[in-house]
Design goal:
The protein is built from three helices and three strands. By secondary structure, it is an alpha+beta fold. β2 (about 50) and β3 form a beta hairpin. α1 (about 25-30) packs across α2 (about 35-40).
Length: about 90
Amino acid sequence: MTAPLKRRRQRMVSRADMRVVNISNAARYAGVSRWTIRRWINEGKLPFVRYPSGSDDTQFRADRVDLNDLDALIERSKDREEIDAAKNSPAV
């Protein structure tokens, strides 16, 4: 028996507020591999938007990432690193 699939977050917002790029461009922007972007999506850390690539809804769909969400994830990661560094530094 296989493990149940995790439900990934998909969000609905207006297009005017979004800076949407494909997975490869998001990876290039963040300086990581596209597999890392996909892992963050699968883990629920990074929301995504799914667009149909053709006129038929059953055709392959292309996932897109909003750079605003990617920036927020990177900032949360930096904050976590700073907190960890402060905990590990010797008291003065």
